[in-house]
Amino acid sequence: KQFHLGMFEIGKPLGKGKFGRVYLARERSTNFICALKVLHKSELQQGKVEKQVRREIEIQSNLAHPNILRLYGHFHDTKRIFLILEYAGKGELYKHLRKAQRFPEPLAAQYIAQMASALKYLHGKHVMHRDIKPENILVGLHGEIKISDFGWSVHAPNNRRNTMCGTLDYLPPEMIKPGREENWYSEKVDLWSLGVLMFEFLVGEAPFEDTPVMTQRRIARGEMTVPGFVSAEARDLIKRLLVLDPAGRIPLEEVERHGWVLRHCVKGERHFQRTSGGKES
Ligand SMILES: COc1cccc(-c2nc(Nc3cc(C)[nH]n3)cc3ccccc23)c1
């Protein structure tokens, strides 16, 4: 299907990410609501991220999962690239996390179950995200979460060296310590990040948060303490994800049937549950 700008009625700007602005949009012929991400080719060239954007488009357009933001299509004009993305009505998860400071365990467990389901789907296609963090997760109208921003995802294995920018908090030890780079590109990196995400949901800050040098050292040694208010079952799952040896991390199938997750998640639909007083799905 060929898309072009004239097909869309552009609505309010939703916000701007690192390399582009996002607008609410409606496709005229179908009245379909979506989010239009506008990237300026010049900015991408300066940031040397054209390849990353091409990869994001190639990977995300082939994915269809309720907890992964859909990329319906893309088009470009002389100056800009446009991504036609699924619209997630409740915006960025990290804003909800900051506002709430930390999530109640039942809500955190539902989010972790949805993440595990999405990661299982991704890993089944030999795609790993490699940049799981609250900033890259959006919230849909019914409270379901959607992984977005596949800029760092790759088809395993991949031997591109990636200059990391942004927070170190979510990096697994195998990407901190030099050597044995084949570990860099196993899907197990997403399991570590899932553990960091779970900790941040429950505690309100990342487990190894510190100065950059100290963060790297604490990650490499797996030095973190889980506060007392975190339940024993949640602590158990965090400890099974934040394992230095990638091979020792609990597999996603076991995350989904861990006591802490099962206790808070109703059987059946994993990608969303009504939490605010709605009927159980
Ligand atoms: C930096 O803040 C940004 C940046 C980009 C988008 C939002 C934002 N996005 C969405 N939904 C989206 C975004 C995409 C790609 N699909 N669905 C909803 C919101 C609601 C309130 C405020 C902000 C929102 C924020």
Report the sheet-strand fraction: 15-25%
Task: State the end-to-end distance.
Answer: 35 Å
Q: Which structural class fits the helix and strand makeup?
A: alpha+beta
Bound molecules: the ligand COc1cccc(-c2nc(Nc3cc(C)[nH]n3)cc3ccccc23)c1
| Overall shape | globular
Biggest sheet strand line-up? 1-2-3-5-4
DSSP, total strands = 9
As a percent range, the share of helical residues equals 25-40%
Mean pLDDT across all amino acids: 89
- Low-confidence spans: 158-163, 275-281
- The SSE string, one letter per element, is EEEHHEEHHEEEEHHHHHH
Major beta sheet summary = 5 strands, antiparallel
Number of helices: 10
Radius of gyration: 19 Å
Task: Please write out the topology.
Elements: E1 8-16, E2 20-27, E3 32-40, H1 41-46, H2 50-60, E4 71-76, E5 80-85, H3 93-100, H4 105-124, E6 127-128, E7 137-139, E8 145-147, E9 154-155, H5 173-176, H6 188-203, H7 212-221, H8 232-241, H9 252-256, H10 259-264
Bound molecules: ligand RO9.
Ligand RO9 binds at residues 14-17, 22, 35, 37, 85-88, 91-92, 138, 148.
